[in-house]
UniProtKB/TrEMBL annotation:
Keyword flag Iron-sulfur: no
One example of a Gene Ontology biological process annotation: lactate catabolic process
Keywords assigned: Transferase
Keyword Transferase tagged: yes
EC number assigned by the record: 2.5.1.26
Protein name: FAD linked oxidase domain protein
EC supergroup of this enzyme: transferase
Pfam families: FAD_binding_4
SUPFAM superfamilies named among the record's database cross-references: FAD-binding/transporter-associated domain-like (SSF56176)
Residue ranges constituting the FAD-binding PCMH-type domain according to the UniProt record: 42-215
Superkingdom, taxonomy of origin: Bacteria
MF annotations from Gene Ontology: alkylglycerone-phosphate synthase activity; D-lactate dehydrogenase (cytochrome) activity; D-lactate dehydrogenase (NAD+) activity; FAD binding
Residue ranges of the TM segments: none
Amino acid sequence: MTIKLDALINSLEGIETITDSAQVAKLSQDYHNFSPVLVPKLEGKVGDIVVRPANEAEVLKVAAACAKHRIPVTVRGAGTGNYGQCVPLHGGVILDMTRMQGIPWVKPGVARVEAGVKLAALDKKAREIGWEIRMAPSTYRTATIGGFIAGGSGGVGSIQYGLLSDRGNILALRVVTVEDEPRAIELHGDDVHKVNHAWGINGIITEVEIPLGPAYPWAEVIVTFDDFMTAAKFGQALGNADGMIKKLISVFASPIPQYFHALQQYIPEGTHAVSLIIAESSLEFLPGLVQQYGGQITYEKPAEEAAKGTHLIEFSWNHTTLHARSVDTTITYLQSMFPSDCSLQVVEQFYHHFGDEVMMHLEFFRLNGAVVIAGLQLVRYTTEERLNEIIRYHEEQGVSIGNPHTYIMEDGGRKVIAPEQLKFKEIVDPYRLMNPGKSKVIQLPI
C-alpha cells in the first residue's frame, strides 16, 4: 500500500492532503462510540491518507487516481453519523468533502449547493429570501448536506415534510464515478434514490439540489406531564393537528429530561416532557390542547428569542443520546418504528415491560401521509446478549428496528439494498473501491 500511496500522492499535486497519523485517525471516525458493540469492532480502523478536494475537478482527479491504483476511498462529511458509515474498514483514502462549501444559487423553493455545505449555513442563506431547509438532523450546525443525504434519513422538520426518501425531498444529485475515466453524472427525480442513503458506496456526491419550505417564525415550547402515556397521546394529537404548523415533537419519559442540564429548571424531576418547535401563528391553539391532556407549559420562547441561545433541536433525535451519554457512558440507544396505532397500545406495552432499562424517547414524523412514531429509546447497556434480546422482543411485537449497532447496511434499518442501487454501483464503482466491507452482497475491492 505504501508504494501505491506514494504514487497517489504524487498524482494529486495541488490538492490538500493530510498524512499525519493522528489527524488521519481522527478523520477516520464518527459517532459510532454511541454503540458499545461497534466500538471494539471498529477499533483501529483508519484510513491511510485524508484528501480534501476544493472543487469537483479535484474530486475527479482523486477518483481517477484511486481507480488507477486500486485504493479504497471512503467519503466523509462532518462525521456526525452513528453507525461507522465513514469509518474505513480497508484503509485507503478518506475523502473529506468539507472544503466544498459553494452555494451556486438559492431561489424561492429550491437551492443548489456543494456537498460540503453545512445545513445551518444553507438554512441561514435560504432565510434571507424567506425560505428554509425542510428537514435536518439534530447535528445541523455541523452536519453537511452531502453527509446527510448519504447517511441520514430525516429529523427536525420531518413531522411536516416526511423523510429524505419521500418523493420531492431531493430534487437532483451530481455524482462523480470511481472508474478509469471518472465522470460527473447528474441524477434527477426518482433516480436520486440510487445514491440517497447509500453510505457513500455509489459515487461521490459533489452537488445537491433540494426543495425549500417557507420560513416560519418558530417558537419553542416545553410541556410537562405527570403521566408518560398522556404525554405521548398529546404528542400524537398535535402531530395529527394538520392546521397547526410544527417542526418538532419530541416526547421524553422520565428520567431522560434529567440528562438535559440546560433545561432542568423547566422540567420538574419525575415528570415527562414534550419538546415542541411550532410556528408562532399556531401558538394560540396550543394551550387548549395542552389543557385537554392535563399538561403544563413550563417553557415558552417566541421566535425572536428562540433564535438565540439554547435550541430545543439540540436535545432531540440523536442529540438526546449524546446528552445522556455525557452523564452516563454506559447508556446506548435503539432506533425503532412503532406500528401505526391511534391508541398507542404498543408504546404503552413497551414502556411498562422494560421500565428504566429502556427509557422511552419518541419522535413524531410523517410517513406516507400519516403521522407515525419513531423510538430512539435509551438503553441501560449491560451485555451484547441482553441488547440482542431487547431487539428481538421489539421485532417479535411488530416493532421494526433500525439497528444502530452494526456497520453492515443490510443489518441496520434497510434489511436489503435496493436493486437499482446495486445496478448503479456496478456502473459507478466497477472496482468496488467505495467504502468497501459495509455490505453483505457487495464483494470486496478487485
